[in-house]
Amino acid sequence: MSQYTDIDRLAVSTIRLLAVDQVSAANSGHPGAPLGLAPAAHVIWKQMRLNPKNPEWINRDRFVLSNGHACALLYSLLHLFGYDMSIEDLKHFRHLGSKTPGHPEFELPGVEVTTGPLGQGISNAVGMAIAQANFAATYNKPDYELSDSYTYVFLGDGCLQEGVSSEASSLAGHLRLKNLIAFYDDNQITIDGNINVSFDEDVSKRYEAYGWEVLHVENGNDDLDAISKALEQAKLSDRPTLIKLTTTIGFGSLNAGSHSVHGAPLKADDVKQLKVKFGFNPEESFVVPQEVYDLYNKSTIEPGIEANKQWDALLDAYVGQFPELGAEVKRRLAGEFPEGWESKLPTYTPEDSAVASRKLSEIVLDNVFDTLPELLGGSADLTPSNLTRSKGAVDFQPPITGLGDYSGRYIRYGVREHGMGAIMNGISAFGANYRPYGGTFLNFVSYASGAVRLSALSGHPVIWVATHDSIGLGEDGPTHQPIETLAHFRAIPNLQVWRPADGNEVTAAYKVALTNKHTPAIIALSRQNLPQLQGSSVEKAVKGGYILQDVDQPDLAIVSTGSEVGIAVEAAKVLAEKNIKARIVSLPDFHSFGQQSKEYQLSVFPDGVPILSVEVLATSGWSKYAHQSFGLDRFGASGKGPAVYEKFEFTPQGIATRAEKTVEFYKGKQVISPLNTAF
Amino acid sequence: MSQYTDIDRLAVSTIRLLAVDQVSAANSGHPGAPLGLAPAAHVIWKQMRLNPKNPEWINRDRFVLSNGHACALLYSLLHLFGYDMSIEDLKHFRHLGSKTPGHPEFELPGVEVTTGPLGQGISNAVGMAIAQANFAATYNKPDYELSDSYTYVFLGDGCLQEGVSSEASSLAGHLRLKNLIAFYDDNQITIDGNINVSFDEDVSKRYEAYGWEVLHVENGNDDLDAISKALEQAKLSDRPTLIKLTTTIGFGSLNAGSHSVHGAPLKADDVKQLKVKFGFNPEESFVVPQEVYDLYNKSTIEPGIEANKQWDALLDAYVGQFPELGAEVKRRLAGEFPEGWESKLPTYTPEDSAVASRKLSEIVLDNVFDTLPELLGGSADLTPSNLTRSKGAVDFQPPITGLGDYSGRYIRYGVREHGMGAIMNGISAFGANYRPYGGTFLNFVSYASGAVRLSALSGHPVIWVATHDSIGLGEDGPTHQPIETLAHFRAIPNLQVWRPADGNEVTAAYKVALTNKHTPAIIALSRQNLPQLQGSSVEKAVKGGYILQDVDQPDLAIVSTGSEVGIAVEAAKVLAEKNIKARIVSLPDFHSFGQQSKEYQLSVFPDGVPILSVEVLATSGWSKYAHQSFGLDRFGASGKGPAVYEKFEFTPQGIATRAEKTVEFYKGKQVISPLNTAF
């Protein structure tokens, strides 16, 4: 006998029609997928552990809509399941300033991650599942199961075609993340028409190859029992599960099964016949029968609120039983670092030896790794180059492999930069103050552009340990030497882009990156050794930019970053011999500097002083802070690092020559600070 | 009985040792993969159709080293097979300015594509296979088989982990590209150690799921016959083939099978024992026994040169038999467009109606598609949005699907932007003047950053039709609205980044992009309608920037792009009412403008005139041409396009206000053109 009755079917129809009404009201949006996916949504959400009054509850189940364009479905669910989402909000679907934007946005209660760019959501979900497994392995104790939640995902063909989902899914299979259950909306339709124009692979077989459990629900349009049965079976698996759900896009619509229902509102007539078909009044919109509210209230909301209460009590008992761990959990849930953690950060003096900044980064990570259990690090298969693995770290691995366990905090991401970026976003979105970091070469952070952008947009404070940050990497040549990379990332809003010049600046970069709760950071680090600079300090560098070395009445300021700062210091000596007085400014992070007071910024770059920037990367973007720029607006070259620097004249003499020309150029001219702008 | 003898084994050892000697001489590089892959390289290259004296021969077989770090192997092969690569060149491996850089570079004879960034090579190879299939289907006639070449690929675990290779491989399976044969170096090692730390999926099963033929050679280290047998079997398949080749990384070395031989030179002792093991003098380096030269000369080089001769004769006969097609082939091989093709390009006057620039792009493509058979277009599943499919185009599809055929010139890429980018590079690298273009939303070109960068670095003139180019796309919201995107791409050397303002500028963008043989282009196009502007013309717009509307003695210049140019024109009217005289400059492409004479550039942006830039994207990079910038240095918002423009004040009044402040700011100040620089 079915566990589902007419009231369940009414609920499914309600979800469907609420979604259709939103799209019609906006005259914009995607009605097709919600119509096909409502039954699965009903089955999943009805049994989910959630508390709409406390959407941040750490032991909630999570639901990720990887096909984010189907957001009218998600908003309908949020309304029906008691979240802060009114019928009025639904009526303002896709309106400017509404709580129902065109794709789900992370800051809305009940929205677990921002989705829309395809392939990201499923990859975020892998990150959430990793975080849950780590949290559980770290804190659960017999009789104190603090964490046992699931992550559910909806994804469509588009998500499956994107490489980022392939990367993340392959890793999820390796990691045997049994807390991850994904529903693949097998509706055979994409924007270009029938999926067979571009995609006839055997998805189930591919996911089996990744090591996933794969199930199939043949009638996703109607068969609630089959969906429920698959869900129960998935929970029994010791692996992540993909449930292939064969559905009809736009189910019930006159154009059901065609791509015309994918991304455009249904015609008025169509909406009417749909309502009649589902037993609703065709003249009414945004209708929720009281029985449906009652159903979900009883099935899900009340039990969820109760479960949250019991969990709170469990946590209190846990704190009593395991005071140290309990305090740590409470601290992490409050989003605070342990008191005095910064004392672990190293500082340097000019007497200390020259060290590659990737190595300096390793020292920071080594020093704080034990103090900050929320650090969950890794590398995209460049561990010995990125130096991202803290001494004594345990790998995050399924215990069965014998290579580590789930309490381990070092992830072997494989050569999967984009997947790593999206997974880090998911780890961060899980909560519990998780701070993911991941290593690769700076040039290959670009492979993950799609995920980096979403970190910034959503405010996930993930950290990229981006080593080999210039032509200084040498022989690997132009395919590996970043040129445009920092210009690209500096143009992304809400993103720190650090390029520290020495030990103190590396410490500053991590200090700011870790302290900030809503801004991701890319830390660009050198392969080659860098001297510890006279004039640098953590206190100054956390400002993002500061006067490293000064002179009375400078003839010019040379502003630089990373490996070129030390060369600029040498250039100042060459200039001094010619009686040209140069102020040296180090500007390790534009974003942090931009947050300082105008007064402070002007003290660094005042009117009257010509400014020359020096950075061995594209000059684009530098005129925000400089009048003249010495950079590399061409691709690099393969050769020994110092030889390549020499070739492009990034030497004390090469800088001094350009500085001289800069001084000459501005002689007798009025020099306005680039910080003084018209509006 | 084996077809291979001692001389073959000597040749394999020679390849191995030449690679090891290169890495040792450079004291930098990757000896491991060449040692494992030399036997397969020997078997493949020995039977390849190639002419080292004419590396551009269109009917050559192609070899792509997707694991580009193994380039010492490729350079050894190029030397042994008679290409312009001397022993002296090998001795300068990884030296600045040498012909043997740290990763293979496209411009070197015999190097088919630039590789190194993992996952790209195999995806490029898919593009080459597409181009070959198209070329053959278009021009082959009974008894005139102009094109029947294969593309061979080496790839490693790293390439297989990258999402871009998943995208391209899935599409290759769908397209049934039987001319593509890939050898997967199953050596179980990556930089992080044993592959099982991150990658235990069943690769063979995955490729079967994609629709590939999958074969396995169990002993890739020694078993030349098994390799050869697999190769022959692959040629019989009607699908692309993946040959899993189990090898030992660093075969023969004391550390064979460990990751220590992956990316660092072998120790001197190790090299010596290796030479002894292979029967070479341990005290000598860069040794090639004459028998090995003789072997390859006889097996491959002489037959290849002869085959090229016969092919030349075949083409001559073809021209006689099929004069029109023959002339077309000759024209394409010469890399020239048909005389007068530009006459098909549309022009507009201000009386023509306002049209979205994506639609204007469609008109251009429609107009030239039949004239230019080298155009091979497509979209990443956004055909109805990108408007990339010319009327009457046939889809490039395996005939068996009934959806098109191989002579079709429209590719359904699926939601695979990165794969599309890499495939386009491969299509271009195939030769025959192929001009691939691909559509997606501008924001999602970023997913393909890794491939875009390689287009620019290698000089593949691919075209991105990048629609929905700003917040003007409206309701889809900030996940789809580009902000940093143009700043990113403008910072890449050798890349045109067009953002045309009207019909004439769209024509200019295509004209320049198509005419240029070594520079890729991104053409950013609006979703919303744009007016045909007074003052625009194709002749002016091809310069990349020009004065659209002028006044006598301007108080300021407003420079803008795309959809904002029309608004700036309206702003000028608002300003005129306040007696502020504004010159309006349209700057559709920084790259083309930068190639004009300094004199011309200064005529647009002279000293003495303050310049305000207006573009509804990140301001970063604009100070190259402007003193003040009005842009959007934050993420966008979901809402109707016009409402979002209003919100951010990109209106005539919003621009006029900032223009007024700009004029005010510079009153009494000396204004130097940003084009006048110190060096």
Radius of gyration of chain A: 28 Å
Order of strands across the main sheet of chain A: 10-9-11-12-14-13
Low-confidence stretches of chain A: none
* SS-based class of chain A: alpha/beta
Q: Largest inter-chain interface?
A: A-B, 130 and 128 residues
Count helical runs of chain A: 25
CATH architecture of the largest domain in chain A: 3-Layer(aba) Sandwich
Q: CATH top level of the largest domain in chain A?
A: Alpha Beta
Instruction: Give the number of DSSP strands of chain A.
Output: 20
Amount of helix of chain A: 40-55%
Q: Name the assembly state.
A: homodimer
Q: Rough shape of chain A?
A: elongated
Count of folded domains of chain A: 3
Enzyme class (chains A, B): transferase
InterPro entries (chains A, B): THDP-binding, Transketo_C/PFOR_II, Transketolase-like_C_2, Transketolase-like_Pyr-bd, Transketolase_bac-like, Transketolase_BS, Transketolase_CS, Transketolase_fam
GO molecular function (chains A, B): metal ion binding; transketolase activity
Family (chains A, B): Belongs to the transketolase family.
